[in-house]
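Late entry, evening session. Most of the bench is empty. Finally got around to the prediction I had been postponing all week. Sequence below, unchanged from the version circulated by S.P.
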Amino acid sequence: MSQVVFRIQPSVHAAYRAHEAQVGTSVVSVYNKLQEIETHTSAELVRYSARKLAPLIEHVGGARVPWLPGYQVTIVDGNALEASAHRLQALRGVEAGALPGKSLVVYEPASGLVSDAFPCEDGHAQERSLCTAVRRTVQAGDLGIADRNFCTRDFLCDIDARGASFVIRQHRGLPFEIVSSLHPLGRVETGQIAEQRVRVMDGQGVAHTFWRLRIKLDQATRDGATLLYILTNVPARTVSAKRVAGLYRTRWTLETAFQHLEAYFHSEINTLGYPKAALFGFCLA
């Protein structure tokens, strides 16, 4: 698989033919093995690599300037693998292409590493369905940046209860109570910013108070929005609202990392129709 991911061989079958003597089994057995690799094995490969590489990056002075001193900043986003060229027999009568899976990916901008992944075999699954697995890995001192797909009551309140922080775009379905009126703070790079306090009740009835930032955009977003709302529990006394807004804008760096994967590695092997095999290839990259 590494021969394919590193673009040394064009396909799994070609890699097998080049190393058939060393493999010592049939190509059918190779494919059978790939299609049964459990997703938790693929995820652990990502974590293992990050644990091994992070100290090396630190040792050679390759770490970048921290985005926010005192916090372990991460960006969380979903990645859906493209439709497979080799469709599963059960799906050959379906007009839509067979989707081999999706993942939630945790990116650490200070090291430039993907430190964790949460693969899912269901290519149609909502990103929110994977949030519980992400929440279990959050530790005190972490600061997660994410889009509105992750803006749920349980996700925000659980992170807050764990002593961690978040900068997340507000989803319109989030229930909250306004505590204070909007207070204008002037301009940021993309528009006018104001802040207010809001309260969110968790499932046990415990109140959590967050900052809600409103950015009146100079230019509408791709979906036509002219007002952008961001929620955070980062203390205002230590980090300004303008700094928080700037942190959210840096989400695009994870999209750049995905583009690097696509440019430098064969991370989405669309001839692998089985979800476990396709996700293993993605995690290996």
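Two things to note before I forget:
Strands lie at 72-80, 102-108, 113-120, 142-146, 165-169, 177-178, 183-188, 191-201, 207-217, 227-232.
Residues 1-34 form one domain.
Will write this up properly tomorrow.
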